From TrEMBL:
Cofactor dependency: Zn(2+)
Protein known as: Peptide hydrolase
Statement: the UniProt record of this protein carries the keyword Signal: yes
Keyword list, A-Z: Aminopeptidase, Hydrolase, Metal-binding, Protease, Signal, Zinc
Family per similarity comment: Belongs to the peptidase M28 family. M28E subfamily.
Bias-annotated ranges (Low complexity): 343-358
Residues of the Peptidase M28 domain: 134-295
Region (Disordered): 318-358
GO terms, molecular function: aminopeptidase activity; metal ion binding; metalloexopeptidase activity
Alphabetized InterPro entries for the sequence: M28_fam (IPR045175), Peptidase_M28 (IPR007484)
GO biological process, one term: proteolysis
Enzyme Commission code(s) on record: 3.4.-.-
Length: 358
C-alpha cells in the first residue's frame, strides 16, 4: 500500500493500521501467561469528594489554550515533514520544561525521544518513585497517550493545524502530567506511569505500533493504556460528555474508567462507536495483547475530523474534564498526591534524555 493509497482511505473516512513493519504484533504476548489483571477497586464517596475539590481548585484551561495554540501554529504536524519533526521536538522540550518547573526528589523522570523510520519522533515520559527498589523489568506500566501528528488528507503537506485531531488529546495529556507533578504525585511501589505522544498515527498507527512492538519484545508489563484522541469538540446543541469507544478495547478496563468518570468528573459519560471508521493508537496496544481503552468527545458517530480545524469548533473545557478524570489513573493510587505549598529550589527530578536505537 502506497502513501497515496492511505490518503485515499483517509479521504473516504476510513481508519486503518499499516502493519507492514509489524505483521506479527501480539504474537509474543499471545504465548505468554496472562498476567494483566484489570482493576477491581471500589471508589469511596469520601475520597471522591476530596479529589473533586482538589481538581476543581488546581486545574484551569489557561495552559491548555496556550498549548493548543502553539501546536496548531505549526503549518502541519505531518510525520513525513520537517514541520512534523519540529513539532515533535517542541513536544519533547515542552514536557521537559513542565518537569523542570516542578522539581521533586520523590520521583525519577525520564524523557525520551523514540525514533522511527520517518523523521518525526514519538515522545515518552516516565515517572518512577525514587525510593522504589522494584527492578524496572518487574514493574507494571500505566500508560496515558495521545497522537501528536496532524494531516491534511487531500494535500498532505499543506496546512493542517489539527487542533482537535489530535492537538486536543495532546494537550489533555500535557495537563494530566502538569497536574500530577504540581501535586507531587508519586507512583505506588511496583508501578511506573508513562505519558506517550505518538508520531504518525495518521499514517496507520505507525508510531504507536513501533512503541508497542518494542515493549512486547522486551517483555514489558503494561497494566493498562488510555488513549486520548479528539477531546475538545462539542457539537452545537449537544451536551458535553466523555465518550468511550467500544471497538478494539478492553471491556473491563472501559467499565472501570466509566466509574472514574462518575466519581470524579462533572461530565456524564456515554459509549460510542464509529464502526469501520474507528481507529487510534489504543489499537496498537490491543493488538499487542495489552489492556487498552479509548476516550474521546461526546457521540462520535457520524462525525469526521476536520484536519484544518482550529479552536472555533472545539473547546478546552471538554479536554479539561478529560484531564480531571484521567488524573485518577486506573490502578495507581498515589502514595503522595497533595496540594503543593512550597517548591524546593535544590531538589529536582532526576531527568535523563535518551533515544532508543532503531
Amino acid at each position: 500500500m502506497t502513501e497515496g493509497d492511505k490518503l485515499r482511505l483517509k479521504q473516504q473516512g476510513l481508519e486503518f493500521m499499516d502493519i507492514t513493519e509489524h505483521p506479527t504484533l501480539g504474537a509474543l504476548n499471545a504465548q505468554r501467561p496472562q498476567r494483566f489483571v484489570n482493576p477491581d477497586r471500589s471508589i469511596s464517596a469520601q475520597n471522591s469528594d476530596a479529589v473533586r475539590a482538589l481538581l476543581a481548585g488546581e486545574i484551569t484551561t489557561d495552559h491548555m489554550r496556550a498549548d493548543i495554540a502553539k501546536l496548531s501554529s505549526f503549518w502541519t504536524r505531518s510525520y513525513r515533514s520537517n514541520w512534523g519533526l519540529l513539532s515533535s521536538n517542541w513536544v519533547f522540550d515542552h514536557v521537559s520544561s513542565i518537569i523542570a518547573a516542578n522539581p521533586s526528589d520523590k520521583t525519577r523522570t525520564t524523557v525520551t525521544k523514540f525514533p522511527h523510520k520517518f523523521v518525526q519522533n514519538s515522545v515518552v515520559l516516565r515517572l518512577d518513585a525514587t525510593d522504589d527498589t522494584t527492578p524496572d523489568e518487574e514493574k507494571e506500566l500505566v500508560i496515558v497517550g495521545a497522537h501528536q501528528d496532524s494531516l491534511n488528507y487531500r494535500l498532505p503537506f499543506f496546512r493542517a493545524p489539527g487542533s482537535d485531531d489530535d492537538g486536543s488529546g495532546t494537550v489533555t495529556v500535557f495537563q494530566i502530567l502538569r497536574s500530577l507533578v504540581e501535586q507531587e504525585f508519586v507512583p505506588p511501589k511496583g508501578i511506573a506511569v508513562e505519558f506517550h505522544w505518538y508520531a504518525a498515527e495518521e499514517g496507520g498507527l505507525l508510531g504507536s505500533q513501533d512503541v508497542a512492538a518494542f515493549y512486547e519484545a522486551a517483555g514489558t508489563k503494561v497494566k493498562g493504556m488510555l488513549q486520548m484522541d479528539m477531546t475538545a469538540f462539542v457539537k452545537s446543541g449537544t451536551e458535553p460528555k466523555i465518550a468511550f469507544f467500544q471497538d478494539q478495547v478492553d471491556k473491563n478496563l472501559t467499565t472501570f474508567a466509566t466509574k472514574l468518570v462518575e466519581a470524579y468528573s462533572p461530565l456524564p459519560w456515554n459509549m460510542t462507536t464509529c464502526g469501520p471508521r474507528c481507529g487510534s493508537d489504543h489499537m496498537s496496544w490491543t493488538k499487542a495483547g495489552y489492556p487498552a481503552i479509548f476516550a474521546t468527545e461526546g457521540f462520535f458517530e457520524g462525525k469526521l475530523a476536520i484536519p484544518f480545524s482550529r479552536l472555533a469548533y472545539g473547546g478546552t473545557d471538554a479536554s479539561l474534564s478529560s484531564s480531571q478524570t484521567s488524573l485518577n489513573t486506573p490502578s495507581t493510587p498515589s502514595r503522595t498526591m497533595s496540594r503543593r505549598t512550597t517548591r524546593g529550589t535544590t531538589a529536582a527530578h532526576t531527568t535523563s534524555t535518551t533515544c532508543w536505537s532503531s
